[in-house]
Fold each of these.
Amino acid sequence: MMEKMIIGRYVPADSILHRMDPRSKLIIVFLFVCVIFLANNIWTYGILVLYTFLMASFSKIQARFLIGGLKPVLWLVLFTFFLHLFLTKEGAIILDLGWFKVYEEGLRQGIFISLRFFLLILITSLLTLTTTPIEITDGLERLLGPLKKVKFPVHELALMMSIALRFIPTLMQETDKIIKAQTARGVEYTSGPIKDRLKAVVPLLIPLFISSFKRAEELAVAMEARGYKGGEGRTKYRQLSWAVADTLMIVGLLFVTILLLVFRG
Amino acid sequence: MNSPLVVLNDVSFQYESQETPALNHISMEVYEGEWLAIVGHNGSGKSTLARLLNGLQFPKEGTINVAGITLSEDSIWEIRKQIGMVFQNPDNQFVGTTVQDDVAFGLENNGVSVEIMSDRVVDALKKVNMDSFLDQEPHHLSGGQKQRVAIAGVLALRPSIIILDEATSMLDPRGRGEVIETIMNLQKEEKITVISITHDLEEASKANRIIVMNQGEIYREGTPEEIFEMDEELVKLGLDIPFSVKISKKLREKGISLDRHYLTEEELVAELWTSHSKM
Amino acid sequence: MDISLKNVEYRYSADTPFERLAIKDVSIDIPSGSYLAIIGHTGSGKSTVLQHLNALLKPTKGAVVIGSREIKAGRKEKNLKGIREKVGIVFQFPEHQLFEETVEKDICFGPMNFGVSETEAKRRARDAIKQVGLSESILEKSPFDLSGGQMRRVAIAGVLAMEPECIVLDEPTAGLDPRGRKEIMDLFYTLHKERGLATVLVTHSMEDAARYADEIVIMHKGTVLKKGKPLEIFSNPEELLAHGLDVPEVLRFQMKVEKAFNTKFSKTCLTEDELTDVMADFLTGRVPR
């Protein structure tokens, strides 16, 4: 199941969304999260659904892959739906089974809120599917740039994020290696009582910590040797380029916002 | 050989946690354009020497002078522009998320403008023959490839000296071969000064000059030919002798006349051919 | 205890889009008390083979027989501890697996996982630390206060203390200096000779394989390219070179000399002494050209 999961994963392709500046994508996702709360009737939700599907089609990612990948979260969406269905007790009763009644408002709320939830997941997934983690980091660093004035460590945070991203696969390999080494020394990681398995974490975590500290230390030395002395006076190799398409996309979302304001009840 | 580029004058260093000095009154020079190998067993002080040259540690006594600049807290950034360093562990010096990002890292630190940067990144990667891997992520590269990227990262900064601190010791034979070949090309074509710190005697035999370290002191200094005359003495120091030297020595013991110990197999074969084929 | 791989195939992430065939149709026999070397480049599948030797990986096709146990593809296997106790693995850079407060505790960790009593484990720890050439006084120290070379030896002692019947070594000398390399290789060879400990050496080094092993398996692109006694393997070096593999440096040099003198020596030499003897005879004309 984890292999089909698409949340947080990047899929390389050549599409409008892939080519967009990460800043505009981040702004759009942020704006979308705000304007989604404007929707309150069938028309406004309809507009949002159309907008999201239009975006999904721009991404050139196969619909089957998208839907298959969202399946694991579908359970959460359904859970939201039933929660509202059962707990909201307003409006006319539309279904009466005696021990359990469904109210009109409950159905409405259930549909709208789970839909809202679903759209949010889809839009943020589109961001991560079409933008590499490092682009997101760059985009965030640039967008948050003004906060440097109030001494917020924007550059340091971005660097930390990119180094973390760089080392995730390395640490995964390392974890795998230590698990194997300790298994060969008689530790059971996949079977046996829970208590033993919890105890088995110690011989895994300590070597991992130690090697991570050692890596961090060596990395710091290597960075220093290559002239790293903080964000001051540093240039950026990766340049972000804001194109007409980026502006148009944001204008598009602003237009959707106006529509929402007009059609909301 | 040209003028000295690096001068160490009576340098000593001791780690706080240790009882004996890691380096004991070292004086040496590194000349422009040469390939100097510093050899010694693990713990002989050779890596400490490398760290001192780059200002990662400061000597307790003595002075270090690099390209006319005396090393001090104030001059380390100037000196680091002159000296590039490649470390032992290929993973723990790869900062960027892709090959080109990593090569650019040093340039970014030095505030190089974007236009110049992209040229230099590609240029440096070409020199180590990794220019077709621009967007590759580190975990998809072999150890030898990562080390070549690290060398490119150093080259992009156009330093006058490159220090390889046991840069080949964690690699497989193929990776080791790739890295040594890269250094040989650079030294020949870019005239860059190379200091390689190693315990691989095959690697050291390709250098112009060798310094043998033992217990924090310079034990011997000389050309590879001179150093390998030491023979069993090297083995006692925890080192080894290159293969062709071993064979030369054994042949001499078995009554084959050879006027010296040959450093490369090709030289040895050629010598055998010229002196013995007409018998 | 014999170990044998029978037509083993292994696929990583089987049945996913990331599936990758690592080894196929690999058959290897390791009789008890033998010394086998598995050679190949990075990515040749030799580490995958290694992990089958104590059921860290289970074949996706074929079977692995370890002593009286058979691990067959497609069958759920329970209780593999018995196997792991008998086959010890020294992984590459084994010092990375150390975690206890003292060297003694770390060495005792393996044996005690297999149900050995604490007193017995401590006795084994004292034994093992001597075998790897360290003094008993080191047992009380923290493994993290030791030098890299000492940590390596402690980790090896931790595997030896399990008193396995077969020991598998994955590049045990990586990163060591020449003296350290020789000492470690000699240590395992002595154990093999004196205690009849079956040894599997996974390595890049043709020299080590030629020097120590009775039997060599050459892995190439996930399959067994060649197997046999060192002399058989290296009697046809051209084939190895054609596959991008190395030959021991002695043999490589022999080939260079043969080429220069346009001759062929009567035997394949694997040690420096053999080669220099043959060459001396040849050069001084004791052997007709």
Amino acid sequence: MSSTAPIAEPGGGVGLSPRIFVQRIFAGKTGPVLTVLAALVILWYAGAVYLNAPQQIDRDRRAEIERSVTDFMGATWAQERPVLPAPHQVAAEIWKTTFAMNPTSKRSLVYHGWVTLSSTLTGFGIGVLLGIVLAVGIVYSRTLDRSLMPWIITSQTIPILAIAPMIVVVLGSLDVAPIFAKGTVSAYLAFFPVAVGMVKGLRSPDPMLLDLMRTYSASNWQTLVKLRLPSAMPFLFASLKVAIAISLVGAIVGELPTGARAGLGARLLAGSYYGQTVQIWSALLVAAFMAAILVTIVGFADRLVLKRMGIAE
Amino acid sequence: MNGAAADMATGSSTGPLTPARAPVLAYPAALLAFTAIPMPVATGGSIVAGSSLLAAALLLIIPALGIPRPPALRLVLVGAVTIAAFLLILANLSPVEGKASLGYWLLLASAGVMAVQMMRGLAHRAGSGSLRARLISLSVPVVFGLWLLILWECIVRGAGVPTVLLPPPSDIAVRFASSLDILWADFRQTFLKAVIAGYVMGCGSGFLVALLVDRVPFLRRGLLPVGNMVSALPIIGIAPIMVMWFGFDWPSKAAVVVVMTFFPMLVNTVSGLSAAGGMERDLMRTYAATHAQSLVKLRLPAALPFIFNALKINSTLALIGAIVAEFFGTPIVGMGFRISTEVGRMNIGMVWAEITVAAIAGSLFYGIVAMIERAFTFWHPSYRH
């Protein structure tokens, strides 16, 4: 179809010819991505039927109900505690616990999401600041570079998240506010990608430019502010995207084992204790939305800053 | 003078030779030690400990006098004094424990500063040229690690920090050695069963799907952005669902690991498969190579750095996934189970021992993957000098 269509037929591309509209969408990324997402939703519905069927058959036999195929499928998508809840059930639960509920209520996902988000952002801020300061230290001190840098790289291979419960419990017993206890975990996790990325970024300027700064007899501080930091910006934002995502994971895991009563992690744990699958899935999806939004915001800031600096294409 | 000449000749071959620095930090260290001499080291401490620590303080003053001229010898002196001072402090820790006073802290600060001076000297001589320079650059992080451990031990024991908050490293080591059988059982359950099985299945399926996606351009355009997005999501949250579906034992943990490792592998392999240059691809076409031939002989080898990158990322993710999934329910064995229950019982020493196991396992796993990578991608520019 696309090969026979003339590239520039009179009036082509003018107005909203549905055919051209569809062609354009599928030539780019939007069409394929939407198709893949639609396929995922269909797979999800099919999976819900398959996984919930044994439970439903059992229940129908006991209640002596005969169902047609479509009726049966509908029933598997409307169970109280399904093995896999259907997308619309999760969507309804999310709607019910976010928009249709007072956000200060203990059952509102807005409330739990805010608890998680606040410790995520606290930890992210502290971690990023620490990472940048340490990276500057490493770039300017040969001793720090030689002694500390190998450990920072090695520590990337260690499952740091395993320490999360201990940090939260120990800090909790010291009467540290939960937001800071969980924030410590997030900060700890966010710190590493930022430190590593910033070391790379601060070292990225061309040696010629560094020599130029020297011919200007620029001080270390001037070189840092006027040359090294600006050229590290692309590296910084690349690490910030990793850091914000991992901060959120840190905050959620920090809420798991401590009997925390608030937060998305606590919601997951409570759901798994009481077999509330719909609750688990809605907490999970809200966490996913939150991660997507946070990463998008960082990406947006990235483009804005690089555009202002004239680096972006 | 011979020592200095040899040092100059074999010194760092990478950068220009900078004049050897004077051990500037020896002066503040000596000042701290000197101030510490008349101070009591502990409230009601024994005389033996006091006099030994006095000897340490006197030792720490020596390098500031700057007796040996050649910088290499001076570094040896600084090193010897630092080690001797720390050994004296460690040997006399028990009488001071929990009741250290100002003299002890000043002495500890002095030894710590002297150790930094030692690291400065070592870092100055580190390089990648001769064997000696490489050995020295290896020694700097080792010295730094030991420095941290010893300071941790001295501070925690000197101040009498309750072990519930932070046990000293010696306690953790004792705990580690005395509960090897429990740690081994946990390691077998979490690592040998869940992590390995999940890692192999997750990476394998990610790789196969990537080959399929690569064949269909429509899927490549559609699936890659989705895969990239999913990599940023807190996938770990599916752990409770997997525990519900696959039960308490290791298969549920392996399932979490499969999902966590799948997407990094998929995304990296797909972008790796487009890494081969256009010229080489055209060459394969002039040879009339089939899709399979050009895949095996050109594009997969070119994708290897990307694939190994995913394998390395996944080695850490797999361990994290398995440990966190155990927080949601396990049989009474496993690293995540042990961590969460011992935290609940405030048995922090055991938690640290388990974390040590996780750290060793994680680094070894990563190291092995990195070694295999070196063997397979020896041709890559990053491994050639």
